Model the fold of this input.
Amino acid sequence: MPKYILLSTLTSKGRETVKDRPERIKEVNKEIEALGAKVVEQYATLGPYDFVNIIEATDNEAIVRVSVELGSRGTIQIISMPAITTDEFIASIKKM
Done:
């Protein structure tokens, strides 16, 4: 299944939510599954992004649903990127 990297930054509203209810992070993962994607790995990070998520989804449209739905709540800003493994990358270069 295709993989995507989601880089996310909490808004001030999102930081309040996480502070008051940190378990909300896991609840959102279930909502992501309802939108047609699955959280494979999730990391809280320091630096310009608060979270890095590795997501599996059937297609780009599923990731659009995730990004729009979560982003529309005003708690998070998301950058989505399709990802391939380095082995897939090497194989595609060798076909050139």
Q: What stands out?
A: The first strand starts at residue 3 and ends at 10. The chain has one domain: 3-94. Residues 3-94 form a domain with the Alpha-Beta Plaits fold (CATH 3.30.70.920).
